[in-house]
């Protein structure tokens, strides 16, 4: 944990990230102090929707949020979209 004051836990709802080992009902540890990089799993607010996805940054400046489940589409950020990265997922906690 880089900065305990910038770290929080959020419960996952949905199965869009099962390929990354993140399941419905899991809790993820999120670090707001880390810089999100290409390939990071992030908690993001797109317009008014909160989501957990893999961040993909194109060389052309394109920003995509990619699920780890083929049943879900990528989120391609349009110019008019508002994106706020809440933090980078650092750990996933599964229930037994």
Briefly summarize what is shown.
The protein has 96 residues and is mainly β. The protein contains no helices and 7 strands. The protein has a single domain (4-93), classed as Umud Fragment, subunit A, CATH 2.10.109.
Name the poorly predicted regions: none
The ordered string of helix (H) and strand (E) elements is: EEEEEEE
Biggest sheet details: 7 strands, antiparallel
Question: What is the percent of helical residues?
Answer: under 10%
Rough shape? globular
**Which structural class best describes the helix and strand composition?**
mainly beta
CATH level 1 class label: Mainly Beta
CATH architecture: Ribbon
Q: Strand percentage, roughly?
A: 35-45%
CATH homology superfamily name:
Umud Fragment, subunit A
Distance between the termini: 23 Å
Secondary structure tally, helices? 0
In what order do the strands lie side by side in the largest sheet?
A: 1-2-7-3-4-5-6
Mean pLDDT: 94
How many domains make up the coordinates?
1
- How many beta-strand elements? 7
- C-alpha-based Rg, rounded: 13 Å
Family: Belongs to the peptidase S24 family.
Domain Peptidase S24/S26A/S26B/S26C: 3-89
GO molecular function: DNA binding; hydrolase activity
Protein name: LexA family transcriptional regulator
